[in-house]
Amino acid sequence: MSEMSRFNTTNILVVGTGGQGVMTATEILAEAAIALGHDVKKTEVAGMAQRGGVVSSHLRFGAKVLSPQITPGTADVLLGFEAAEAMRWRHMLRPEGLVLMNTGRLVPPIVELGLYDYPDDPVTAMRAAGTQVFSFDASRIAQELGDIRLGNTVMLGAISDHLPFPAEVLEGCILKRFAHKKATLVELNQRAFAAGRAAAEAAAKAEADAGCHLLP
């Protein structure tokens, strides 16, 4: 019997490149799970993260978690801060898993080094492989809010309605980090979180509508 079936564990894989806030996002997700009494384990793999290298972060939580490592084919949600990285890690998803993908293009260094060919259309390629993908341009949303660094909060907003606890718990963990700073930072992160939720909801609707159009 697998650990997931024994302990009802939730597995979230967060991937992207250095500087996007992958590790911070995972820390906040972990804080939210801990606040609700879950046993939490996480681990990160960063390749020259501060210089834009690829980053992946595993998060597992539930009644009892024995290992921080997500095994291939068992991730419930793949949160892709960068589209090509999301595509590279698609094999980690369980068959009914979900990809929440930022389509803002930020080419990883492994592409520039010739170690990986950047896909022409990661979203279409993943859907063609049978993966459920909700895609949106989190980078553009953050820029429109006035700060590209808000992309982290946009992505957390996007995943908030796909977790086994209320979105408000996650939002509270984000805003707590800005409680003693400028009020404008709290407001900006509130707006970014709401924008991420709305973007993911719109992407889900668009995917559902597209699926209906494919029916005979």
Note down, in words, how this protein is organized:
The protein starts with a helix and ends with a helix. Mean pLDDT is 87; it is low at 1-6. It has nine helices and six strands, in the order αβαβββαβααβαααα. With 216 residues, it is of the alpha/beta class. Helices cover 44% and strands 21% of the residues. The chain has a single domain (3-210), classed as 3-Layer(aba) Sandwich (Pyruvate-ferredoxin Oxidoreductase, domain 3). The protein has a six-stranded mixed sheet with strand order 2-3-1-4-5-6, sandwiched between helices. Strand 2 and strand 3 form a beta hairpin.
Summary keywords:
globular, 216 residues, single chain, 21% strand, alpha/beta, 6-stranded mixed β-sheet, 9 helices
**Using only CA atoms, what is the Rg?**
17 Å
Shape: globular
| Major pleated sheet | 6 strands, mixed
Quaternary state of the chains: single chain
* Number of DSSP helical runs: 9
Q: What is the CATH first-level class name?
A: Alpha Beta
Classification by helices and strands? alpha/beta
Poorly predicted segments:
1-6
Proportion of residues in extended strands:
15-25%
**Topology as a string of helices (H) and strands (E):** HEHEEEHEHHEHHHH
CATH architecture: 3-Layer(aba) Sandwich
State the total count of DSSP E strands.
6
As a percent range, the share of helical residues equals 40-55%
Tally the structural domains: 1
Order of strands, main sheet, comes to 2-3-1-4-5-6
Question: Would you identify the CATH H-level superfamily?
Answer: Pyruvate-ferredoxin oxidoreductase, PFOR, domain III
**Mean of the pLDDT scores?**
87
InterPro entries: IorB_Oxidoreductase (IPR052198), Pyrv/ketoisovalerate_OxRed_cat (IPR019752), Pyrv_flavodox_OxRed_cen (IPR002869)
Keywords: Oxidoreductase
Domain Pyruvate/ketoisovalerate oxidoreductase catalytic: 18-197
GO molecular function: oxidoreductase activity, acting on the aldehyde or oxo group of donors
